[in-house]
Amino acid sequence: METLITITDAGREAFVAPTNDGTSAQSIVEIGLATAPFVADKELRALPSELKRITTFGGTDVAPDTIHVTMQDDTADQYSLYGFGLYLENGVLLAVYCQPTPIMEKSSAAMLLLATDLQFATIDSAQLVFGDASFLNPPASTDRPGVIELATQSEVDTGTDDTRALTPRTAAKRYAALSGATFSGPVAVPTPPTGDNSDLAASTAFVVTALLHAQVGQIAFEPRSSVRAGYLKCNGALVNRADYPALWAYAQASGALVSEEEWQNGHWGCFSVGDEDTNFRVPELRGEFIRCWADGRDDIDPSRGLGSHQGSQNLSHGHSSSCSEVGDHGHRAWTDEQGLHGHHGWTAGGGHHNHNNGAFSRLLRPPYGGSLTGSDSSGSGSEQAVGPPDSADIVASGHHNHEFQTEGGGLHAHNVGMDGAGAHTHGVTISPDGAHESRPRNVALLAMIRAH
């Protein structure tokens, strides 16, 4: 804020040109320092309570009615500064300023440095020239060097002040370095047009739009029952082209857009043109397994159409089986004749022995002239005593075997024949394996397609 300075009558007279037809330029060569309050009156010709005059000052006009003055006192004097006066080169007191409270307090160890804008109400400040000053510190501007006030961090962050200067520290907290920076708050940049591929910084809106356009048509699988925002279920539904223009554009460029008739005939993994006017159909993936398109590979899944449905099938393999019973039954068999033939045999000798028949104990020796005695109750002829000379005891020979051997009938064969059991069948049972479809281990997820 400018300080309104009082022009003395003597000072005003000094500005009047000798020809009384204008003003003349004047040079300020000294500034008096007042150490007590006084009344700034235009009739003053000397500065009240003046301590001393200094010549270490500078100044320049900064507006038609304003000059900027900088004063410096680096002596060891100690005082309170209440006011000051401007002296011309002829010793005339040009103008004075004073206030009831100290402008500054100077100690013996300190340097006084005061910069102020002095506003003149009735003279042209351009007519004032500062004399042989040791320094010049007017307010700095875009076309004039000088003194400038440093801006606080708050003023820097607000960014509306055009008179204060930044320091490297305040600037670093406000502006990013070209070599890179870490931002602690949001950074706003203009959003480039869609599809822009320049070096412009990308805003969040641009990135989101670009990502969404890049993802349209992509299919996602997630463990959820409701569709995610921006997606449609892959359930073969008809949708309006006007509601999903990006997805309709993707479908037209995908190479997987078929007629409604083709779609109904098994091309469920494709888009259909719908009614060919206002709608189109999305793929139907519910309950289906995904198989990558062979795309010309003929050694596996040959001649397969993109998006076409394929029924279940198993790799060729074997099954175990069993036969059912047909009940108890027989088969008649026979041997053929080999002609009349015999088998010769003999027994081996058992050695010399007797056989006791259990009823008689003695046998007659030949000639058999007598008869058995005591063996026939009625007699059988003339009885004759049998004694040791004409008979012998029948003695048991003990347990023994007689071997019987036969001779072989010569080398020959006997053919065996078997009659059939009649026409009949044996049932074969193959046990079933599996259920109503072929499938590997799996988990169920919701299939969705990015729509916008």
Give an overview of the whole structure.
- By secondary structure, this protein is an alpha+beta fold.
- It has six helices and 27 strands.
- It has helices at 9-15, 153-158, 168-174, 204-215, 245-253, 260-264, and strands at 3-4, 6-7, 26-34, 50-54, 57-63, 66-73, 79-81, 83-88, 93-98, 104-106, 112-119, 128-130, 219-222, 231-233, 238-240, 257-258, 271-272, 279-281, 321-323, 333-335, 345-347, 362-364, 391-393, 404-406, 416-418, 428-430, 446-450.
- Strands 2, 3, 4, 8, 9 and 12 form a six-stranded mixed β-sheet that branches. Strands 1-11-6-5 form a four-stranded mixed β-sheet, with no helix packed on it.
- The radius of gyration is 70 Å and the shape is rod-shaped.
- The protein starts with a strand and ends with a strand.
How much helicity do the residues have?
A: 10-25%
Rounded mean pLDDT is 80
Query: For the report, how would you describe the main beta sheet?
Result: 6 strands, mixed
Discrete helix count: 6
How far apart are the termini?
A: 59 Å
Contiguous uncertain segments of 5+ residues = 131-136, 370-385
Radius of gyration (Å): 70 Å
Briefly note the structural class of the backbone: alpha+beta
- Counting DSSP E segments of at least 2 residues, the number of strands comes to 27
**Strand percentage, roughly?**
15-25%
Q: Shape, please?
A: rod-shaped
